[in-house]
Amino acid sequence: MAASVSSVVVLDRGNNTTCTINLHGATIVSWRVNNQEQLFVSKLAVFDGQKSIRGGIPIVFPHFGQWAYGPQHGFARTSRWSVEKQPEPLDNGDIEALFSLVDNPITKQMWNYSFKLVLRVILREKELQVSFNLYNTSVEPFQFNMLFHTYLKVPDVRKCNISGLQGCMYVDKTKENGIYQEPREMVTVNHWTDRIYQNTQQEHVISNVVSGRKMKMIKYNMPDTVIWNPWDVTSNTMSDFGEDEYPNMICVEAGIVITPITLNPNNTYEGTIVLQVM
Ligand SMILES: O=P(O)(O)OC[C@H]1O[C@@H](O)[C@H](O)[C@@H](O)[C@@H]1O
């Protein structure tokens, strides 16, 4: 079914603090804190209910990267999700909503398993918590990748520092998947960057996001972190990304990438990121 303008769910915590989820991919397309947008969405992003949305927080599942059986980064970001629970205030005033994706004939053509994937979004005063629960409802085990492909909005990517990567091994996709070790305490991005860092620290702090503030990302059960910026080198290969936009975004993507998880029947796996405006 094609997504339409009405295919969005808005969490509103008051004080112009909102989070908007597009049911196409359950993609978080906006997170505003006191009216200030924290996420980057390309001006050329396509909202046709077909293509994945270029920006915000798309969900990569069940496969990361190019995939022999389906589209790059899997089908979750191009599937129509259901609202499991409409936004409701919790006792402390935070707002929670739940979304779900269940196997169907289209997903089974690519990945012949039964599953239920639930996304829980909690909007706090200065925090956004995004969790997934994956249930294996098949009769056999399956393996999966999962990643929150978070596009942060930044005034100038060259001024951002990212902590939590020092000493980690990484796959450099810009260098024929060569494997290197990160020596830097603070990683900067000054050129085309596409790296899968393995077993990163639980927290990343990204400096110089909107208004020169810092953003903390805390992750649970999501061991790896992808850092991506297409720069002018690969911007022009994407029809839904402006050639002048790369300075204004940085993708810091927490996920299960290098070693897929094996999930047994009737078992569940939960992972979370918390984004915190500092
Ligand atoms: O264009 P897509 O499919 O949204 O992917 C964007 C990028 O996503 C990143 O996670 C990958 O590491 C990159 O290789 C990829 O280019």
From TrEMBL:
Keyword Lipid metabolism: no
Record GO biological process: galactose metabolic process
Gene3D superfamilies listed in its UniProt record: 2.70.98.10
Binding site for substrate: 54, 72, 77
GO annotations of cellular component type: cytoplasm
Superkingdom of the source species: Eukaryota
Pathway: Carbohydrate metabolism; galactose metabolism
Keyword terms: Isomerase
Catalytic activity: alpha-D-glucose 6-phosphate = beta-D-glucose 6-phosphate; alpha-D-galactose = beta-D-galactose
Molecular function GO terms recorded: aldose 1-epimerase activity; carbohydrate binding; glucose-6-phosphate 1-epimerase activity
Pfam families reported in the protein's UniProt record: Aldose_epim
UniProt keyword annotation of Isomerase present: yes
Active site: 149, 253
EC number: 5.1.3.15
Family membership noted in the UniProt record: Belongs to the glucose-6-phosphate 1-epimerase family.
Purpose: Mutarotase that catalyzes the interconversion of beta-D-galactose and alpha-D-galactose during galactose metabolism. Beta-D-galactose is metabolized in the liver into glucose 1-phosphate, the primary metabolic fuel, by the action of four enzymes that constitute the Leloir pathway: GALM, GALK1 (galactokinase), GALT (galactose-1-phosphate uridylyltransferase) and GALE (UDP-galactose-4'-epimerase). Involved in the maintenance of the equilibrium between the beta- and alpha-anomers of galactose, therefore ensuring a sufficient supply of the alpha-anomer for GALK1.
Entry protein name: glucose-6-phosphate 1-epimerase
Protein species of origin: Sipha flava (yellow sugarcane aphid)
